[in-house]
Write a structure and sequence with these properties.
This protein has 426 residues and is mostly helical. The chain is built from 17 helices and five strands. It has a three-stranded antiparallel beta sheet. Helix 7 packs across helix 8 (169-179), helix 9 (182-195) runs antiparallel to helix 10 (199-222) and helix 16 crosses helix 17.
Length: 426
Amino acid sequence: MLYTALIILIFRIGAALPVPFTDLADGLITDPDANNFMAYLSMMTGDAFNYGTLFAMSITPYINASIIIQLLTVAIPALERLAKEGEEGRKKLSAITRYSAVALAALQSTAYYFFIRSQGYLSVSADGAAYTGFFAVFQALVIILCYTAGATLLMWLGEQINEKGIGNGISIILFAGIVSRMPTTLYNLWSYVNRGGAYIPLAIIAIVSMLLMIAFIVWMDNAERRIPVQYAKRVVGRKMYGGQNTHIPIKVNMCGVLPVIFASSILSLPPTIQMFVTLEPDESGWDAFWQGFFDIFQTTHWAYVIMYFLLIIFFAYFYAAIQYNPIEMANNIRRNSGAIPGIRPGKPTSDYIAKILHKITLLGALLLSVVALYPLLFSQITALFDKQVNLTMGGTSVIIMVGVALETVKQLESQMMMRHYKGFLD
């Protein structure tokens, strides 16, 4: 626990360290009620993106690389063979993911550099003019390398938590960044109350709905579907085994927060590309077309909500297919002289399990979508009455926070249980 706390402390220090040649003391987000892509990235990075600090890219390059490699594992036979080679294959896939993450970090850092340069957030020479020639190239290299190194360091810190700390390293770092934004979130809600009038009941509704959302996520995380299994008695030597009734627990939210994280990461790619270019209206209308295309990926656009919903369902099914193999589950039950009551062994059993998995996956994905999309829909509904209230602590953030907290508590309980048994046996 102390080791994990030390990693979190390093993360928060790095999130406050400015990068040379940048001048982002006032932040990129000037509107406190902003509900766009930048506000989302700032929230996920603990304000590091907003102020252009060392960890501005956060852990998102590694998450995006993980998504890409896992999707390619299904499509490319060579990667699929690596995944089936056991521990050695997994090590090679992990190395490929790391290299891909560094490449994506460099790409995103370059996009971020071009964006802050176009917005005038780079430091200038003593006479007030922008750097040119060799100094401009040197400035760009320093900034891009600093952001790339920050993302790479965070990836390494996350792996250290996996090996020596408590919980999943990537999730813990995301959790720390989101929690650090809590004071800002509470301040924004209080600012709505200070406006008076209709904002007061809307702010109260927002607070109550967030508390209910947390309770709903806890309930959803603990919900499970139990498939009954009955094992036949068998004699081995002088002992009799089996003969008991048990069940296979399948969690409703079997994928945790991963579908939400992956969906939001995929939708963040077009706005990242937008940082490379500066679009201005012209007579051809070409720039206007691309501006309209990029506007679709703003969190306030209805198309973003639809794509977010569909991607959550897609990744939920994708991860369910990776985690659960109905044919293998049916073979394991049959191998241990077990059977599901009323279902014949073999293919009928695998079909029955697959049918249950499809239903549970769909239900879990829909429940995740409700939580993830509620803050976006809430702000849109309040905007119809000219009293827009933005929940800066979005559904994605709440799911990550609650999910990581529950997962970490379970790991702590298992660690304490192992220590208890070890002491008892000694």
